[in-house]
Design brief:
CATH architecture of the largest domain: 2-Layer Sandwich
Radius of gyration: 18 Å
Subunit structure: Part of the 30S ribosomal subunit. Contacts protein S4.
Distance between the termini: 58 Å
Shape: elongated
Helix content: 25-40%
Function: With S4 and S12 plays an important role in translational accuracy.
Low-confidence stretches: 1-5
Organism: Porphyra umbilicalis
Strand order of the largest sheet: 1-2-3-4-5
Number of domains: 2
Keywords: Chloroplast, Plastid, Ribonucleoprotein, Ribosomal protein, RNA-binding, rRNA-binding
Order of helices and strands: EEEEHEEEEHEHHH
GO biological process, one term: translation
Strand content: 35-45%
Number of strands: 9
CATH class of the largest domain: Alpha Beta
Largest sheet: 5 strands, antiparallel
CATH topology of the largest domain: Ribosomal Protein S5, domain 2
């Protein structure tokens, strides 16, 4: 049976966090009495203002797995530095396992050009103009985590200037 991706949207009214289920997978474990059926859910939580997290939940029912996934995602939140054009400050690569994701800033109005779980993570982080490409693996979870890895490595111009010990104006001059 082929894996089918299911996408759903849930918006919490009180806090502004949005949850999107990226994948629901039925998994089995062989035990003494036969096979034990459970569900694994991969979901993304974000506030579309620069914070995003990916979580995994496993339970005997889908609702329980989603609740566990939300808790896991909120434990692994990442803050994304966004530019004025709702893009990322510079190109970056993210790696998780065999999955590699290339993230490049894009011109205003171009939208999110990405596929699968990469698109979901970027949309919920608040990025609106970006180019992304998955390399190496089609694994949904590893691609989502590779995007988070890339987003954690992003630095703003002011952070780079502070690390180098130079005024920010020197970064722009040639």
């Amino acid at each position: 049976m082929a894996n089918r991706k299911k996408q759903g949207k849930v918006k919490e009214k009180d806090s502004g966090w949005e949850e999107r289920v990226v994948q629901v997978k039925r998994v089995t474990k062989v035990v003494k009495g036969g096979k034990k059926l459970s569900f694994r859910v991969i979901l993304v939580v974000g506030n579309e203002q620069g914070q995003v997290g990916v979580g995994v939940g496993k339970a005997s029912d889908v609702i329980g797995a989603v609740k566990k996934g939300v808790t896991d995602a909120k434990k692994h939140l990442v803050t994304v530095p966004l530019t004025k054009s709702n893009s990322i400050p510079h190109p970056i690569n993210g790696i998780s396992g065999a999955a590699q994701v290339i993230l490049r800033p894009s011109a205003p109005g171009s939208g999110v050009i990405a596929g699968g779980s990469v698109r979901t993570v970027l949309e919920l982080s608040g990025v609106q103009n970006i180019l992304a490409k998955q390399l190496g693996s089609n694994n949904t979870l590893n691609n989502a985590r590779a995007v988070l890895n890339g987003l954690t490595q992003l630095r703003t111009f002011s952070e780079a200037a502070k690390d180098r010990g130079v005024p920010i104006e020197n970064l722009y001059s040639k």
